[in-house]
Amino acid sequence: MKTVAFQGERGAYSESAVYQFFGSTVQVKPCRDFKDVFESVKKQEVQAGVVPVENSIEGSVNQNYDLFFNYDLKVCGEVIVKVAHCLIANPGTTLESVKTVYSHPQALAQCRSFLEGLRVELIPAYDTAGSVKLIKEKNLTNAAAIASEKAAELYGMQILARDIADNKGNYTRFFVLSKEDSPVTGKDETSIIFSAKHEPGSLYHALGEFAKRNINLTRIESRPTKKTLWEYNFYLDFEGHRTEPKCTEALKALEKYAIFVKVLGSYPRAK
């Protein structure tokens, strides 16, 4: 049976992404940190890993893009999960008695308007589901956590309020990690990292190689190299599989304008 690693405690949105992609019978391995997920796949302790890369409200999960640069792993799939935050507390706790709210910093930020109305102290935690586990284990009766409905069910907690995010169109995009990417399906996307040469027009010409072959770019973002001041790596997603002729040609042509090119993998686009 396949085992898949994810960051967080049982009941985290990342665990939901695992089941959404692989089905309910898969075995899961919770990890403390994102790096632990990459390490588990690298060492073949698990067959795959699932990590968030982008939220529709808060933007990119930069730590994971940096890890993709450092690890020789492939993206073999993507999954998009609807995020529906709940305010969760120990049984018997009332909304009026809540003085402190725990959750991941992104979840706290996504529920800013609701929390401002409560006038409570906000305490960041490493994981949404982990914050529910924390207030349960410490039996905090004047505290609550922001997490999924699944987390409340899993830990036997009560839900004080549902769907509390400021923006109801809240989705997180996850990448599935493996040693190999996926074969051609006809509905594929490819993710790469490259660094443009320090020459006038190099980025313009690099992106032009995709335009002249009618390849649609779906995302581009820059991240500091962390090696040289004001130098950046570019993270690029485009439609098509890396083995398709026009995509292979574009990647080869890109090398003329880039210091390096790293293909993270090709995978079926999420529905």
Quick description:
By secondary structure, this protein is of the alpha/beta class. It has helices at 13-22, 34-42, 62-70, 105-110, 112-118, 128-137, 149-154, 202-211, 245-254; strands at residues 3-7, 27-31, 48-55, 59-60, 74-82, 86-89, 100-103, 121-124, 143-147, 158-162, 171-178, 188-196, 217-224, 232-239, 258-268. The chain is built from 9 helices and 15 strands.
Task: Describe what this molecule looks like in 3D.
With 271 residues, this protein is an alpha/beta fold. The protein has three domains: 3-82 and 172-178, D-Maltodextrin-Binding Protein, domain 2 (3-Layer(aba) Sandwich); 86-162, Periplasmic binding protein-like II (D-Maltodextrin-Binding Protein, domain 2, 3-Layer(aba) Sandwich), CATH 3.40.190; 188-268, Alpha-Beta Plaits. It contains nine helices and 15 strands. Strands 1, 2, 3, 4, 5 and 11 form a six-stranded mixed beta sheet that branches. It has a five-stranded mixed beta sheet with strand order 8-7-9-6-10. It is elongated and about 65 Å long. The model has no long low-confidence stretch (mean pLDDT 95).
